Amino acid sequence: MILTINGGSSSIKFSLYKINESLQKMLFGEIENIGTAKAKLNFTIIADQQKKSLPIDAKDHSHAANHLIDWLEKEQDFTSVKAIGHRIVHGMEHTEPELITDELLTELKKISAFDPEHLPEEIKLIEIFKKRYPKIKQIVCFDTAFHTSMPLVAKLLSIPRRYYEKGIRRYGFHGLSYTYLMEELKRLTDEETANSKIILAHLGSGASLAAVKNGKSLDTSMGFTPTSGLPMSTRTGDLDPGVAWYLMKEENMTAKEFNHLINQESGLLGISETSGDMRELMNVEDTDSRAAEAIDLFCYQTKKWIGSFTAVLEGLDVLVFSGGIGEHAPEVRSKICDGLEFLGIELDEINNMNNRTIISTEKSKVKVFVIQTNEELMIAKLVNGLLNSSVKSENFIK
Ligand SMILES: Nc1ncnc2c1ncn2[C@@H]1O[C@H](COP(=O)(O)OP(=O)(O)O)[C@@H](O)[C@H]1O
Ligand SMILES: CC(=O)OP(=O)(O)O
Ligand SMILES: [Mg+2]
C-alpha cells in the first residue's frame, strides 16, 4: 500500500492505494476545518461504498494527523503500508521526488518562510508520521518541480539581483496537478496535442495558470509564494508592492498582520466580505453585488492571464480547466472565455453546462478541455516509481 498525504493550510487530504499492476484506490478522505470547532474527518471506503463524516477534536495539524493515524490503524493493517508520499508545495529547485532524510528535512525547515501557508504544516506532518512509524519510508513530491524548466526570464523578479542568489524568484506551484493534467491530456488526445501550445488553469481554493509548450512549463502565474498571480479564495494574487509599504507606514501594519491580510483575508473573501467559496458566492450573486463583483474579478483576472500566456506561447492550441472551480463551474468558465473568440476560443455552451471533457465547438481553433485533476494519484505514481527504481538501486536507504 501507498498512503498519500496532501497537507493544506486548513485540511489534510489522504488516500490509500494498493500496489497492483496499476494503483488501486482503497480509501480516501480529508480532515477539514482544522483549528476550528467544525473539524471533521470525512472518508470513503471504496469496497463497500461507505461514506462517513466524523466530528473530531483537531485544534491543530498535529492533533489532526494523530487522529488520522488512529483511524487508519483501525481501518487498515498499517504493516502493509510500504511508503507514505507527501505533497510538498515548495521544493525550490528539486526536480524529482525524494526520500525524506534528516538533511532534506533540515533544508525544508530553512525555507519554511518561503511558503508560510503550507510548508510548516507539511513538515509537521512528516515529523508526526516519522515518530509513529520510524520504519516506513516517507517520500516527498514537490509542486515546484514541474516549473524548474522555466527559462530564466520567467524566473527573474525585478528586484536587485542579489535577492535572486538568496532564492527570491518565481518558482510556481500546483505542479503535481499540472503533471497529472499533462498525462491525462496525452491519454485523451495524442503526442502532437500534448506537445502543442497549452494553457493549464488549475482553479481551486488556490488558483494558478501555467503556459506549457513541448510538455515543458514556460511560465506560471504563481511566483515566489503561492500568494501571487490570480485572486484566490482568500489570497490576493498579484498586488502592487506599494500597498505593503503604505499599510506598514499609514496603519502601522506588522509583517505578521500583512501576511494574514494577503493570505487569509483577501481574494474572493476580501471582495465579497462573506465567503471565499466560489459555490457559495454563485448562490447569492443575484442578490449580493459584492459576491457578483468578487466572481467578476476572478474571471477578469483569469482572462487577462490567458491573454498574457497566449503571448508567451506565441499562439494557443489547448486550454484546460481544472480544480474545484475549473471542473464544476460552467458559468465561470463561460465568463472567462467570453470575448476570447479572437484567440480562437469558442465554447459549446451545452457541453460546457454539462461539464463534458471537451467543451469547445467542433470548429474552435483552440480545444478547450475540462479535466478532473488528481494530485493524490500523481503522488502515488511518483512514489511507486521511486520504490521500483529503488529495488535496482543499492544506494536507496532501506
Ligand atoms: N459546483 C461548483 N460550483 C462552483 N464552484 C465549485 C463547485 N464545486 C466546487 N467549487 C469550488 O471549488 C473551490 C475548491 O476547489 P478545490 O480544488 O477543491 O480546492 P482545494 O484547493 O482546497 O483542493 C471552492 O471555491 C468551491 O466553491
Ligand atoms: C499551491 C497551492 O496554492 O495549493 P492549494 O491550492 O492546495 O492551496
Ligand atoms: Mg488545492
TrEMBL record:
Highest taxon, organism lineage: Bacteria
Residues annotated to bind substrate: 87
Catalytic residues, chain numbering: 143
EC class (word): transferase
UniProt-listed InterPro entries: Ac/propionate_kinase, Aliphatic_acid_kin_short-chain, Aliphatic_acid_kinase_CS, ATPase_NBD
Cofactor: binding comment: Mg(2+). Can also accept Mn(2+).
Pathway in which the depicted protein is active: Metabolic intermediate biosynthesis; acetyl-CoA biosynthesis; acetyl-CoA from acetate: step 1/2
Cofactor(s) named in the record: Mg(2+); Mn(2+)
Reaction catalyzed: acetate + ATP = acetyl phosphate + ADP
EC number assigned by the record: 2.7.2.1
Annotated positions binding Mg(2+): 6, 375
Localization, UniProt: Cytoplasm
GO molecular function, one term: magnesium ion binding
GO cellular component entries: cytoplasm
GO BP, one annotated term: acetyl-CoA biosynthetic process
Chain sites annotated for binding ATP: 13, 202-206, 277-279, 324-328
Keywords: ATP-binding, Cytoplasm, Kinase, Magnesium, Metal-binding, Nucleotide-binding, Transferase
Site for Transition state stabilizer, residues: 174, 235
Role noted for this protein: Catalyzes the formation of acetyl phosphate from acetate and ATP. Can also catalyze the reverse reaction.
Family: Belongs to the acetokinase family.
Subunit structure, as described in the record: Homodimer.
Protein name: Acetate kinase
Organism: Kaistella flava
Gene from which the chain derives: ackA
